[in-house]
Write a structure and sequence with these properties.
Blueprint: H1 3-12, H2 19-26, H3 31-45, E1 50-54, E2 56-59, H4 88-100, E3 105-108, H5 118-131, E4 135-136, H6 141-151, H7 155-165, H8 180-186, H9 193-205, E5 210-216, H10 222-239, E6 242-249, H11 264-277, E7 283-284, H12 288-299, E8 306-309, H13 328-337, E9 341-345, E10 351-354
Parallel strand pairs: 1-8, 1-9, 2-3, 3-4, 5-6, 6-7
Antiparallel strand pairs: 9-10
Helix pairs in contact: 1-2, 1-3, 2-10, 2-11, 3-11, 5-7, 6-7, 6-9, 9-10, 11-12
Length: 355
Amino acid sequence: MKDADHALEKTIRGGRLSVDECLTLFKEENLIPLGLAADSVRKKYHPDSIVTFVIGRNINYTNICITKCRFCAFYREKGHPEAYLLTKDEMFKKIKETLELDGTEILLQGGLHPDLTIDYYTDLLLSIKANFDIHIHSFSPPEIVHISRISGLTIEETLQEFKKAGLDSLPGGGAEILADDIREHISPNKIGTQDWLKVMEVAHNLKMPTTATMMFGSVETFEHRLKHLEQIRNLQDKKGGFTAFIPWTYQPGHTALGGETTGAFDYLKTLAISRLFLDNIPNIQASWVTQGAKIGQVALAFGANDLGSTMIEENVVKATGVSHRMPKGEMIRVIKDARMIPAQRNTLYGILKIF
């Protein structure tokens, strides 16, 4: 029996894969057995064949950022003619539109603005909660660390203040690849691996749910991806605070880093391995935002059980020249065409409506 076959049989039986076993799977050229194994594991977590999605909006409140990540096409320096900071009224209008479309979630995410202290953010959170009944899933670890530093607070103090002001959960953005040699190459001014993990651990200690992400296909190796996955799994073993894992592919358009777009084969392989290796995270999300609806649909046979947000608005990936749209009706059709059952969920994976 080949090593890859042995590893797949082990995970189907419920065994925990080692890093070395997963490296063998990454080197495997036959994609179909990987997909079948990942689909088998998905069915253990979700035997009812329900595939979920959330109606939400990404509100990128500012594109002003001091980190100048080489993989990012979205940021602008302060003073640039295209730099912006949305007003509260502009954000409120977007939230109102989201609720009118049966939305339940907003994701506030922006650049690391050099002038905004914690008072700006807590005032914004309090104002949103005073005016709207909506889940605030916002502010990635790099934003949390930046705000804590500029405000003279610890990470724990910052998250405590955010939670009191109305922050409900944290997105897993800013993870990229959790290996500092890669981070120093693609985002030298952004927080390191340990700071990202620390924010998430503190959030979990405060009973604040989070998601985890991985941006792959830039300059990292399979070993780097596995290092990333291992650290996510280890942290999840501690507190169980990650509700979902979202692997997505680097988009090189209009970036300083450049390079080539990784293909669907690599995406589906990495997605399937994520499902097999992350045996303690129940939900794996397909990245239709970078892959499009068709590959998003295929991902449902490679371990994914969730299509994420309808993303009424999305600007970061769009800045690279990649723009896919998937409104509610198409989400439902894509899931049904895959012979699965569509369901609208809330941010914490509670089912709101089955279609």
